[in-house]
Amino acid sequence: MQRTPLLLSLQQQALDSRRMGEELARALGADMAGAVQPGRFADGCWTLGASSSAVAAKLKLYVPLLLRRLRQAGWAVDRIQVRVAAPQSQGGGVRAEAPAQASAAPAAVRERLRALRERL
Known about the structure:
Number of strands: 3
Strand content: 15-25%
Helix content: 40-55%
Order of helices and strands: HHEEHEH
Shape: elongated
Largest sheet: 3 strands, mixed
């Protein structure tokens, strides 16, 4: 396979994103980091995919901390964009209803939601 400049650039972006993801895991802890998927890193913007809107909201609170830590580690990150990751479809484009226990949200978030459901 011929290595073109575009392919090499994409490979470097993926490698950078994975390495920054390791720093993210150290900053957020295992529960929260497990619900976040490192995405594209290009032109100083790093995109992160959150497993749910609750995780995305919480992750946005961590953006200043993450930017500071990444910059201290030597990464040229200007901003972090957080998006809710699209759910994976199962089979011929028809999404199956996911069971309630299959949430990818961190344990603390699931527990808080369960407590709110019980109160209502």
